[in-house]
Amino acid sequence: MFIDSHCHLDRVDLRPYSNNVGDYLEAVKADSLDHLLCVSINWEDYPAMQKLVSGYPQISLSVGVHPNEMDGYDPSSKELVEIALKDQVVAIGETGLDYFRVEKEQEVTVQQQRFRQHIEAAKKINKPIIIHTRNAQDDTIRIMQEENAG
Predict the structure, then answer these.
(1) What distances in angstroms separate CA 32 from CA 2, 29, 92, 105, 138, one per listed residue?
(2) 104 and 138 in contact (C-beta within 8 Å)?
(3) Are 53 and 11 in contact (CB under 8 A)?
(4) pLDDT tens, 40-83?
(5) 2-146 fold
(6) What are the boundaries of each domain within the chain?
(7) Is 34 a residue whose pLDDT tops 80?
(8) Contact in structure between 95 and 130 (CB atoms under 8 Å)
(9) Using alpha carbons only, what angle is made at residue 1 by residues 126 and 14, rounded to the nearest 5 degrees?
(10) For residues 118 and 80, is the Cβ–Cβ distance under 8 A?
(11) Closest by CA position to 132, among listed 62, 53, 67
(12) N or C, which end of the chain is more exposed by having fewer CB within 10 Å?
């Protein structure tokens, strides 16, 4: 059994598959891919992503906000938990720290606060977090230790 543990199906060009997720899944199944984890990167696109994959038990979801997403809505820990309790959702994330393109110290602060919120939500419901880290390894480890997240 092969599992794609990190994909963004809401970003896949489905035109070669008649704009149909089911046709796409048949194609990847032919390549021995049995399950996919569709990873959320922002709050605004989550409902459409959930609708896209609804009814496909071979697709699981995560809910979260990528560290580079600075302009969208930042859900509270409570809001993350509410969505993450749905059956198809198996993880919180994509979350973490990415200092590669940071231009202002405020962006670092926002990323760190958001990362802590995601960790808090995951701990409340005992689900894993999907961590993205780039140029921020020390802070990522420090925050995980401070939050007793692993």
Answers:
(1) 6, 5, 26, 45, 37
(2) no
(3) no
(4) 999 999 999 999 889 999 999 999 999 999 999 999 999 999 99
(5) TIM Barrel (3.20.20)
(6) 2-146
(7) yes
(8) yes
(9) 85
(10) yes
(11) 67
(12) N
Residue whose entry in the numeric block shows the structure tokens 């200092």: 99
pLDDT at 79: 97
Q: Which of 82, 78, 86, 77 is nearest to 95 (CA)?
A: 77
Q: In angstroms, rounded to a whole number, what is the distance separating the alpha carbons of residues 62 and 128?
A: 9
Amino acid letter, residue 2: F
* Placement of tokens 């995951």 in the chain: 122
The string of DSSP codes covering 107-145 is HHHHHHHHHHHHHHHHHHHT--EEEEEES-HHHHHHHHH
**Whole-number pLDDT of residue 25:** 83
According to DSSP, residue 95 is labeled E
pLDDT value of residue 33: 83
Give the model's pLDDT for residue 28.
Answer: 80
Give tens-digit pLDDT for 98-130: 999 998 999 999 999 999 999 999 999 999 999
The amino acid at residue 92 is I
Strand locations in 29-84, DSSP E? 33-38, 59-63
Whole-model pTM: value is 0.90
